[in-house]
Amino acid sequence: MKGLENLKLRGRRDEEIVEKVLKGERIDEGEALYLYSRDLTFVGALAEFINFKKNQNYAYFIVNRQINPTNICIYGCTFCSFGVKASDSRAYELSLTEILKKVEDSYKNGAKEVHIVGGVPPHWKYDDYINLIRRIKEEFPQILIKAYTAVEIKYMAQISKKSYEEVLRDLKEAGVCALPGGGAEIFSERVRRIIAPYKASGEEYLQIHEVAHKLGIPTNATMLYGHVETLEERIEHLKLLRELQDRTGGFQVFIPLAYWPYNNRLGGERTSPVDDLKTVAIARIYLDNFKHVKAYWITLGERIATLALNFGADDLDGTIEEEKIVHSAGTKSAVRQAKERLIRMIREAGKIPVERDTFYNPLKVWEG
Ligand code: SF4
């Protein structure tokens, strides 16, 4: 049991899982589910063992900027606190000039990436989506553009009558270099009927990401947990991601997103810190074909995100500059983070900070 000598094993099942982890073999869905019944230290030790093999003692962050061009959305997902109808007093839509100004400000402050996701407004045309990317790329050719969730891409395909492949080719040609992971929620149809009945289905999300991977566009994968899903449905979600990753290898990172229950129709309760950390750790153990697992400080909060770096996560996301989506749902975390603070969080966790680009290429390492 080299590396896991001090683990307290409770029986044959623990021994089998530990043996698999030590040999670098994958655990199955029943074992992933079983890990939710085990204590946090056991699960965390296994996750960190795997994380160390994949990423040594390094933990990543990026200097980036989030832009949400509009919160107007036709879909009305019950769990969402961000999207509103055009008639709502909270509705907003940024002009192209305002968006370019935000990119310019961030670029001057060292941002390497813009992350663009928003609502799905009824009046946007296909060319609006494409031109936005093209204009940013023309003005700031060095900045990497990670843009549009599978939900937005499905809508673009619908209104343009193009295939997913044609839409993704257009986006790539305009300047998109990667896709964010939003819109996955929980893939189960039962859950989607309750929380997101109208937007892209789980199957469509996976199809769009698969096409992107085949076109050489890497993507992120997410899972929104802590609302109406069962633990079995979480594991089924991870299974579908692991299977797609086996086929394409195009996912860069898995991001568990803790649900925030305020200011929406679904309501509910906050996830517990133990659930948050176990979910990060179990994902790290189960998703053996993912190199990175992110502790998204916006949804976890800075303290749990820092802790998660000792429970299998190796990435904090970034400086972000302006976060609207999770703040609409009540998170109390900051809207932005100074680069120095991210470095401090990583060091507090006993890890070595690495500033990265969108593709996890290291740009600077803070050794020592
Ligand atoms: S989750 Fe996305 S698609 Fe659903 S209502 Fe919110 S912004 Fe619209």
Secondary structure layout plus pairing:
Blueprint: H1 12-23, H2 29-35, H3 40-55, E1 58-62, E2 64-67, H4 96-108, E3 113-116, H5 126-139, E4 144-147, H6 150-160, H7 164-174, E5 176-178, H8 189-195, H9 202-214, E6 219-225, H10 231-248, E7 251-258, H11 273-286, E8 292-293, H12 297-300, H13 302-308, E9 315-318, H14 325-328, H15 339-348, E10 352-356, E11 362-365
Parallel strand pairs: 1-9, 1-10, 2-3, 3-4, 4-5, 6-7, 7-8
Antiparallel strand pairs: 10-11
Helix pairs in contact: 3-11, 4-5, 5-7, 6-7, 6-9, 9-10
Bound molecules: iron/sulfur cluster.
Structure, explained:
With 368 residues, the chain is of the alpha/beta class. Helices cover 44% and strands 14% of the residues. The strands form three sheets. A four-stranded mixed sheet has the order 9-1-10-11, covered by helices on one side. A four-stranded parallel sheet has the order 2-3-4-5. A three-stranded parallel sheet has the order 6-7-8. Helix 3 (40-55) packs across helix 11 (273-286) and helix 6 packs across helix 9. The longest helix is centred in the middle third of the chain and has 18 residues, at 231-248. The chain starts with 11 loop residues before the first helix and ends with a strand. The structure holds iron/sulfur cluster (SF4). Residues 73, 75-77, 80, 82-83, 119-120, 151, 196, 199 line the site of iron/sulfur cluster (SF4).
